[in-house]
Amino acid sequence: MVGVLQLFARDVPELPFPERCDLLQVFWCPNDHQAPWWGPRPVTVWRQAAEIGEPRTEPPPAPRFDEELLANDYVPIPCMLHPEQVTEYPQCDRDVLPGLLRHRVEQWDAQHDEQYNYALSSAPGTKVGGYPLWIQDPFEPVCECGRTMEHLLTIATDEFGTKGRWLPLEDRDNPAIVGPHTIIDRDAWAPHGLMLGDVGSLYLFTCTTCPHRPLAGTEQST
């Protein structure tokens, strides 16, 4: 297993932590799996940070890869997150909005250079909660208890989105980021170094009603 993401309740208070838990850790098997994952298979661990003892002195077992290329695609570059809360709205181009409202939003969008989709709707990149930025048709898993599961987080290959929506101002003139580039240049436009499918995203869902927080999800690519 490979460590992918670690979040503390103090940094993301909106995250629905189970009772007596304040730390979420996300791992995955860095090999391709069948449906519904179509890529690395994730697991989530909810725990109390105070219960973690001394760090291990010996290195963890090295992951095994079915293909050598997966070591570059599915092992993130170590980095630190600085969470930022943003306001977003559902996509109008994936049948997420109800019919009449969707029609009104599409009309407004057509009159405003598609600013709803590019600047107001689902935020791109790796994020916790909010609305998934679907690449293909929406996927809404149902929990074993019968409730529709909630979007927990998205792990995205492309962090900045179409037209550089979340690209820092100081990077918008950097040709390594905004200029022509290839897959091997991904550390410039995907700081974590991941490649999920064809510049895809992994969507994770959970049921906040069930205390054991079951996990479901899927990967989508262009």
How does the SSE layout of this entry go?
Layout: E1 2-8, E2 23-29, E3 41-47, H1 70-73, H2 99-111, H3 115-120, E4 127-128, E5 150-156, H4 175-178, H5 186-189, E6 201-206, E7 215-220
Antiparallel strand pairs: 1-2, 2-3, 4-5, 5-6, 6-7
Q: Quick gist of this model?
A:
With 222 residues, the protein is an alpha+beta fold.
Structural account:
This protein is an alpha+beta fold. The chain has helices at about 70-75, 100-110, 115-120, 175-180, 185-190, and strands at about 1-10, 25-30, 40-45, 125-130, 150-155, 200-205, 215-220. The two termini are about 25 Å apart.
Q: In angstroms, what separates the terminal alpha carbons? A: 26 Å
Basic shape: globular
Number of helical segments?
A: 5
**Succession of helices and strands:** EEEHHHEEHHEE
Strand order of the largest sheet: 4-5-6-7
Brief descriptors of the model:
globular, 222 residues, 5 helices, alpha+beta, 14% helix
